[in-house]
Amino acid sequence: MTSTPEFIQVRTEGRVGIVTLYRPKQLNALNDQLIDELGAALKAFDADEAIGCMIVTGSEKAFAAGADIGAMASYSFADVYQGDYITRNWETIRQIRKPVIAAVSGFALGGGCELAMMCDFIIAADNAKFGQPEIKLAVIPGAGGTQRLPRAVGKSKAMDMVLTGRMMDAQEAERAGLVSRVVPLDKLQDEALGAALTICNYSLPSVLAAKESVNRAFEGGLSDGVMFERRLFHALFATADQKEGMAAFVEKRKPEFRHC
Ligand code: HXC
């Protein structure tokens, strides 16, 4: 990154890159600068050979309470459309090829919920609350919420969330399939780091292929997805790590992956 970010904190733990959203007074409300900084940090980790997986997290009280309402309040249609304000650069996160885990505690509302859903999976603390309350502001989700939420939880619950603007707690989110695990608040960061370190120990080409193939399930039809998966599966037999992984199993030893 070119300059020191203002609204995020960036650090590494082994091969894991961690980005913490940091606008504490505004409950991590997401403005264009924060999204730009987040995208730049994730892209830098994606390009860094020393990194195998990333975590995006917030504070105990808020992962992110949505897009910055104060910043949006006076925009006209011409402002947001011509300047691509608010929605600018969110898609950067989707371009990241290494896995990105969302570690969510507290509020994940509006754009905060959408940001969490853009990550590859969500680990939630037991105090997490998810919601798409944009309807209360006379708008609708603008960063994929009406598209990713139904895919995650089905049409009925997504309609309920988007039309009533109510919040869903961590237990409901887990039952609905929005989050992969719920853990006590004080265990959240360790749990996310443990998952990330597990992923980092696998062969990177297979990790990238696995992420790409699961994402296909969301964006295309079943036959195409199955064919795409098969091609990637076959392609992984060209890696040295596939030879190592299978030889290690046969020889009853731990594999040593070289990520190639
Ligand atoms: C700007 C926000 C904010 C937001 C909270 N704050 N959410 N500022 N944008 N989205 C600020 C408050 O104004 C307040 O500032 C401080 O953070 C603490 O918030 P409180 O409301 O005092 O806290 P609390 O009573 O605990 O309530 C928490 C809350 C509530 C339930 C999360 O803040 C809330 O409802 N926030 C708005 C949630 C929302 O509608 N999100 C969707 C936004 S639209 P001060 O200065 O008073 O201390 C959206 C569109 C996405 O996200 C489009 C993506 C492209």
State mean pLDDT (0 to 100 scale). 96
What characteristic shape results from the CA principal axes? Answer: globular
Second CATH tier, the architecture of the largest domain: Alpha-Beta Complex
Bound molecules: hexanoyl-coenzyme A
Describe the biggest sheet? 6 strands, mixed
CATH topology of the largest domain: 2-enoyl-CoA Hydratase, Chain A, domain 1
Q: What is the helix fraction of residues, given as a range?
A: 40-55%
- Give the number of helices: 11
Q: How many domains would you count in the coordinates?
A: 2
Q: Which strand-content bin applies to the residues?
A: 15-25%
Element pattern in H and E? EEHEEHHEEHEEHHEHEHHHH
Please state the structural category. Answer: alpha/beta
Strand order of the largest sheet: 1-2-3-5-7-10
| Uncertain runs | none
CA gyration radius, whole angstroms:
19 Å
Write structural notes for this entry.
The chain has 260 residues and is an alpha/beta fold. The protein folds into 2 domains: 6-198, 2-enoyl-CoA Hydratase, Chain A, domain 1 (Alpha-Beta Complex); 202-249, Orthogonal Bundle (Lyase 2-enoyl-coa Hydratase, Chain  A, domain 2), CATH 1.10.12. Helices cover 44% and strands 16% of the residues. The chain is built from 11 helices and 10 strands. It has helices at 32-47, 69-72, 77-83, 111-118, 145-153, 155-164, 170-176, 188-200, 204-219, 222-235, 240-250, and strands at 8-13, 16-21, 53-57, 62-64, 100-104, 107-109, 121-125, 129-131, 167-169, 181-183. The strands form 2 sheets. A 6-stranded mixed sheet has the order 1-2-3-5-7-10, sandwiched between helices. Strand 1 (8-13) and strand 2 form a beta hairpin. Helix 5 (145-153) crosses helix 6 and helix 9 runs antiparallel to helix 10 (222-235). The longest helix has 16 residues, at 32-47. It is globular and about 65 Å long. The protein starts with 7 loop residues before the first strand and ends in a 10-residue tail after the last helix. The mean pLDDT is 96. Hexanoyl-coenzyme A (HXC) binds at residues 26-27, 29, 65-70, 86-87, 90, 107, 109-111, 114, 133-134, 137, 141-143. This is enoyl-CoA hydratase. GO terms for molecular function: enoyl-CoA hydratase activity.
